[in-house]
Amino acid sequence: MISQYTMSKSTDERGRIYLPKDVREKFGNQYRIVELPSHVALFPVDEDPIAGLRAAVGDAFRETKAADLKADAREAISREVREEAEARSQAGKE
Length: 94
Fold this sequence. Notes:
Blueprint: H1 21-27, E1 31-35, E2 40-44, H2 49-57, H3 66-93
Antiparallel strand pairs: 1-2
Protein name: SpoVT-AbrB domain-containing protein
């Protein structure tokens, strides 16, 4: 069963948001803030991201070294940035 936790929070005078203790205990204390077109989202960051990835995907990367995973991720990010820059360049020509 998938549970969903929905809450409303306001920032304090310094822009901070308080996460309840049960949320911090479940997801940890570190989060990546992702700005999307219509909202922002918080994604928990594992203390050991590679271990978290392996836990999430099971044995799919068991034989893959962390350095190889990082290199693949960097290549994918670079490719996405190049494609986005090219798309913006093409849009500017129209």
